[in-house]
Amino acid sequence: MSGFIGVNWSERAQKWEVKIRMEGKQKYLGLFDFDSEEAAARKYDVFASNLGRTVNFPEVDLGKKKASSVSTSSVREDELQM
Predict the structure, then answer these.
(1) Domain ranges within the chain, ordered by starting residue
(2) Cβ neighbours of residue 79 under 8 Å, at least 6 residues apart?
(3) What is the distance between the alpha carbons of residues 54 and 33, in angstroms, rounded to a whole number?
């Protein structure tokens, strides 16, 4: 379990896993090494901010970065448009 929104520890992979709920379905955003829980939370924030969702680091201005600037194969850019 993580203290960050959208971040969980994957026992199977032994890495931090990032997911976000979109249109009633969970979208997988990636896995991160053991010592990068914060990096995983920041990746979640890029997608969450584009969707108008609560983020883990509200004091950081993400400048509405395009989520496509974060490498992912399971979330299409058109899914992020509102």
Answers:
(1) 7-80
(2) 22, 23, 27
(3) 24
Per-residue pLDDT of the chain (82 residues; tens, 9 = 90+): 789 999 999 999 999 999 999 999 999 999 988 678 999 999 999 999 999 999 999 987 665 555 544 444 445 444 443 3
The residues near 5 (Cβ < 8 Å, ≥ 6 apart) are 41, 44, 48, 54, 55, 56
Helix (H, G, I), strand (E, B) or coil at 82: coil
What's the pTM? Answer: 0.69
Q: Which of 18, 15, 19, 17 is nearest to 33 (CA)?
A: 15
